[in-house]
């Protein structure tokens, strides 16, 4: 009897541990996403550019080490890599509240911490995405991704609100401490997983550079993966250019207090739960590729409402835009992740994922930096509008690609 017949993957002890650890870690990270900018803005009185830079450096490692990280992870068992990464993240984020309590915290340290956490995240994400297909059956990947993305989105609802409450009650650095604790819980969960990955077939090990080239070639010569990588890059510039300055927009332009900022971002995150829950049903009705495009289009068009927000009840525009955007992005992420886990050979998954992520996640660093620069020079509201417009253009262009012309993603490479 399978886990699905007994009531789903949450009846599986090992999946439940992975799910608990990852959800807890995401809750901590969603607190830190608000807490780190709040520390910069409220405690260190940082400029808009510095806040954008703080976001950018967290994603910069994808550009610097993404390709070798993917090839390196493909050579090794994934769970030990994940354990090391989360342990490192726990230690570096723990340094922020310690430095603050000693009166030694600086903007330089925040940037170094964000960079170190970003390095750990590169290796963790590549290993995590490659680990899941070995933990669950192929036909359970859609269910697994829905549960993981849904719970992660639920954690992101509570995270910003907790960040605001912690900042108001105990200071902004308390949110960073919560993030460090969440990584510690994730380490304990990962250590308790009994499943061990199957041994890789013995073969002559090639040079790391050659394996990196194999991963790149696989993506470049595949019309679906290449489109997803390019679209992801353009979309992430727009999304991160928007998100990197939304705390500045809410706190400075609209005059929202710390608790209100947390509440607004929590409501925004609720869209992700809806997106994860509905993605499978939408895909079954209209096709996986069409559901992916529709999810992205819905989020992009609603994103245009964000820059129209005002103080007080005018925040409804920002919440509506963010809720829809979160639903669309998370829903499309579930479909995207499931497609790649079924489509890409397990022996190359790390390299292929890293090759795509170098482009798409590396663009997040550019988006964060661009959002900070434009927010400082052209204005925060104007920059939000520009980034929303870029997202709409990116989704419109997707309609003219092989993904936009098919009903379903292919089950295997032809």
TrEMBL record:
Pfam families listed in its UniProt record: MFS_3
InterPro entries for this protein: MFS_dom, MFS_trans_sf, TM_effector
Domain Major facilitator superfamily (MFS) profile: residue ranges: 222-414
Lineage: superkingdom: Bacteria
Signal peptide: none
Residues that span the membrane, as ranges: 21-43, 49-69, 81-101, 107-128, 215-239, 259-279, 291-309, 315-335, 356-374, 386-404
PROSITE patterns: MFS
Main location: membrane
This protein's UniProt keywords: Cell membrane, Membrane, Transmembrane, Transmembrane helix, Transport
Gene Ontology, cellular component aspect: plasma membrane
The keyword NADP is assigned to this record: no
UniProt subcellular location: Cell membrane
Record GO terms (molecular function): transmembrane transporter activity
Membrane topology value: Multi-pass membrane protein
Protein's UniProt keywords contain Transport: yes
Protein name, UniProt field: MFS transporter
């Amino acid at each position: 009897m399978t886990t699905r017949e007994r009531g789903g993957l949450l009846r599986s002890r090992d999946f439940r541990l992975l799910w608990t650890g990852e959800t807890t870690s995401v809750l901590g990270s969603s607190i830190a996403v608000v807490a780190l900018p709040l520390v910069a803005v409220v405690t260190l009185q940082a400029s808009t550019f510095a806040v954008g830079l703080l976001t950018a450096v967290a994603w910069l490692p994808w550009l610097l080490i993404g390709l070798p990280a993917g090839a390196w992870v493909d050579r090794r068992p994934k769970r030990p890599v994940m354990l090391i990464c989360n342990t490192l993240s726990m230690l570096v984020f723990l340094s922020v509240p310690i430095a603050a309590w000693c009166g030694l915290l600086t903007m330089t340290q925040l940037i170094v911490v964000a960079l170190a956490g970003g390095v750990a995240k590169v290796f963790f994400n590549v290993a995590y995405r490659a680990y899941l297909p070995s933990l669950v059956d192929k036909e359970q990947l859609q269910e697994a991704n829905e549960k993981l993305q849904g719970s992660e989105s639920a954690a992101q609802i509570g995270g910003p609100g907790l960040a605001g409450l912690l900042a108001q009650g105990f200071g902004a650095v308390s949110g960073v401490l919560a993030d460090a604790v969440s990584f510690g819980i994730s380490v304990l969960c990962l250590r308790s997983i009994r499943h061990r990955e199957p041994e890789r077939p013995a073969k002559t090990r090639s040079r790391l550079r050659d394996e990196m080239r194999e991963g790149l070639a696989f993506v470049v010569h595949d019309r679906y993966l290449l489109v997803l990588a390019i679209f992801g890059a353009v979309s992430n510039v727009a999304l991160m250019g928007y998100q990197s300055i939304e705390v500045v927009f809410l706190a400075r332009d609209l005059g929202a207090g710390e608790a209100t900022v947390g509440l607004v971002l929590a409501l925004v995150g609720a869209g992700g739960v809806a997106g994860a829950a509905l993605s499978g049903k939408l895909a079954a009705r209209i096709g996986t590729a069409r559901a992916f495009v529709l999810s992205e289009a819905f989020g992009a068009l609603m994103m245009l409402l964000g820059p129209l927000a005002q103080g007080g009840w005018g925040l409804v525009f920002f919440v509506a835009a963010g809720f829809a955007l979160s639903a669309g992005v998370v829903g499309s992420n579930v479909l995207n992740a499931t497609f790649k886990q079924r489509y890409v050979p397990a022996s190359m998954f790390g390299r292929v994922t890293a090759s795509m992520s170098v482009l798409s996640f590396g663009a997040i660093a550019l988006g964060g930096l661009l959002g900070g620069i434009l927010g400082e020079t052209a204005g925060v509201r104007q920059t939000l509008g520009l980034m929303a417009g870029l997202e709409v253009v990116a989704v419109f262009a997707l309609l003219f690609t092989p993904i936009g012309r098919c009903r379903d993603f292919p089950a295997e490479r032809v």
